[in-house]
Amino acid sequence: MGSSIRAIVDINMRANDFSSSIVLVLGPDQYIDAKSILGLSMTLYRNQTYLLYVYGPDQMEAKAAMREVFAKHHLQLQLKEAP
User: Fold this and answer.
1) How do residues 6-59 score in pLDDT, each as one tens digit?
2) Domain boundaries, the chain
3) Does Transport count among this protein's keywords (predicted)?
C-alpha cells in the first residue's frame, strides 16, 4: 500500500476509535470528517499543515491519538479549539 494511502487508512481508522467529532479544516468553507475515508482520500498532501478540530467526551485521548498518527506519517498538524 502506498504511503499516502496508508496515511489515509491509519488516520481514518484511528479517528473511528473515538466518539468525539474529528474534523479537518481545508479552507474557510471546507470541512472533512476524519471518519470519512472518502473525504480523507481527496485531501492529504504532505506539503501543508492540517487544521483539526476535535471535540467530544473523549477529546483529550482523540487529540493525542491524532497527533501521533499524523506524526507517524510526517504530516504537519495544528489542533484548534472547537468553535
Assistant:
1) 999 999 999 999 999 999 988 888 899 999 998 888 776 656 888 999 999 999
2) 3-80
3) yes
Q: How far apart are CA 26 and CA 50, in angstroms?
A: 7
Instruction: Give the largest Cα separation in the chain, rounded.
Output: 36
- H or E stretch covering 11: helix 3-15
Cell 478540530 found at: 53
Q: Per residue, what are the HEC states of the chain?
A: CCHHHHHHHHHHHHHCCCCCEEEEEEECCEEEECCCHHHHHCCCCCCCEEEEEEECCCHHHHHHHHHHHHHHCCCEEEEECCC
**pLDDT tens, position by position, 43-55:** 766 568 889 999 9
| Domain covering 3-80 in this structure, CATH number | 3.30.1340.10
The reported pTM is 0.85
